[in-house]
Amino acid sequence: MIKILKYGEVSNDEIFARAVPSVNVEDIVAEIIENVRKNGDKALLEYCKKFDKADLETLLVSEEEIEEAVNSVEPVFIEILEKAAKNIKKFHEKQRRNSFIINDEDGIVIGQKVIPVDRAGLYVPGGTAAYPSTVLMDSIPAKIAGCKEVVMVTPPNAEGKVNPVILAAAKVAGVDKIFKVGGAQAIAALAYGTESVPAVDKIVGPGNAFVAEAKKQVFGKVSIDMIAGPSEILIVADGETNPKYAAADLLSQAEHDKMASAVLVTDSYELAQGVSAELEKQIPMLERAEIARTSIDNNGKIIVADTLDKAIDIANEIAPEHLELCVSQPFDYLDKIRHAGSIFMGRNCPEALGDYFAGPNHTLPTSGTAKFSSPLSVDDFVKKTQYTYYTKEALSKVARDVEYFAKAEGLTAHAKSAVIRIEEE
Q1: Distance (Å, rounded) from C-alpha 140 to C-alpha 63?
Q2: What is the phi/psi pair of residue 122, to 5°?
Q3: How far apart are CA 101 and CA 132, in angstroms?
Q4: Is 92 a catalytic residue?
Q5: Candidates 278, 322, 324, 362; catalytic one
Q6: What region, left, alpha or beta, does residue 81 occupy, with left being phi > 0 and alpha being psi -120 to 50 degrees?
Q7: Could you tell me if 328 and 268 are in contact, meaning their C-beta atoms sit under 8 angstroms apart?
Q8: Closest of 149, 141, 146 to residue 94, by C-alpha
Q9: How far apart are CA 376 and CA 137, in angstroms?
Q10: Is pLDDT of 388 > 70?
Q11: Element housing 76 (H / E)
Q12: CB 389 within 8 A of CB 109
């Protein structure tokens, strides 16, 4: 049963405690990465046979396989994918950044170019955790940014096939190449390249502990989106919230995995009791009841605060991945939310709406990192290059200032490079 904690009557350590994964895979992942660096496709094919039980001859998903998968998916689901993709594009198009130029002084031009990364790599989990939504959310921003190529990796099943809904989503999103490989070995392939898998500039997408550790270890060779922790939801709710809705929304994250975190913060003890009772009714009805039960019992909590303002303060301290603002006037509180990956406003906006359909991205900062990081966006797939141009006349006006500054730092060669051009005259 979920814990009910009264803020101010229990320690802050208990209020703000987080689930911490205990598995240590650092050495295993390092060995996998090194093997892929040295042996390329051979290592990938061996890992596919070992971990996925798939005896493959080639890693690349063919156009025929993609078309076969698309044709096997119900047409209504293709239509839903296309509707979701349209919403995602509409939202992310607004994130485009423009280059700029400043030339308001004679002889001086300065500016910034916004340039997409050449190649983006997308990791998509497979098997029981097949998320076509991730394909849309992570590849569409890359396409909008202008990446020349989006490369997707995802593990096959024992028959060497990729889940057809994953391939259908990739088709809708315009993914350029798809490879049948998962786990840490897939991240290594994207980072360093193999005979088949091209090296990329940026790796995005969720995964298990091995994938997260691999992304951590290859960072620096390539850019990554984030190191994702367990899924999280925090609901700030007033006493008018329907406990059935709140319980259902908590379970929408609890069913992800046993380490997931589902938290309700409310100013109503009656709501806390009602949600607790509803959880006990709803959990046995879930297909993933065992996972949800473990998540709720081990990591779930209901925090009762004296006021909604205090509930907001608690939410900001936790800085959740998903934050539902289930109150009568949600926009009155929006500006008070400082730390959250994505905010869902009002009583008719379940977090699942954001997972699949609304348009804002669902790849979000977890484990409190929303205090300093952001959802995946078009910005993740571009870089900025700045430039400077001075005429000789413009340089002559500031060369002595540059010289003085450089000498203050003890860098006389810097100073000389600025004044040598004017001293020649």
Answers
A1: 20
A2: -120, 120
A3: 40
A4: no
A5: 322
A6: alpha
A7: no
A8: 141
A9: 8
A10: yes
A11: helix 75-93
A12: yes
Q: Work out the average pLDDT over 226-253.
A: 96
Beta strands 382-390; 108-116: pairing state: antiparallel
Beta partners for residue 232, in sequence order: 261
Please indicate whether residue 321 is annotated as part of the active site. yes
* Summary mean pLDDT of the chain: 95
What pLDDT does residue 130 have? 82
292 pLDDT exceeds 90?
Answer: yes
**Residue pLDDT, tens place only, 161-210:** 999 999 999 999 999 999 999 999 999 999 999 999 999 999 999 988 89
Q: In this structure, how many other beta carbons lie within 10 angstroms of the beta carbon of residue 200? A: 25
Mean pLDDT of the 217-229 span: 94
Contact 203/123 with Cβ under 8 angstroms? yes
The residue with tokens 């790599």 is: 121
Out of 321, 324, 351, 403, the active site residue is: 321
Per-residue pLDDT band for 229 (boundaries 50, 70, 90) equals confident
DSSP state, 339?
S
Which DSSP letter does residue 81 get? H
Which amino acid would we find at residue 47?
A: Y
- Rounded CA gap, 408 and 34, in Å? 46
Q: With contact defined as beta carbons under 8 Å apart, do 191 and 85 qualify? A: no
Whole-angstrom Cα distance, residue 168 to residue 425? 68
CA-CA-CA-CA torsion sign (403, 408, 412, 413): negative
State the SS3 of 132-201: HHHHHHHHHHHHHHCCCEEEEEECCCCCCCCCHHHHHHHHHHCCCEEEECCHHHHHHHHHHCCCCCCCCC
Which amino acid is it at 67? E
Q: Which two tokens stand for residue 76?
A: 């209504």
12-16, 230-234, 354-358: least confident range: 12-16
Q: Which pTM was predicted? A: 0.93
Q: For residue 149, give every residue at least 6 positions away whose Cβ sits within 8 Å of its Cβ, in sequence order, or none.
A: 118, 119, 120, 176, 177, 198
Proportion of the chain above pLDDT 70, given as a percent: 98
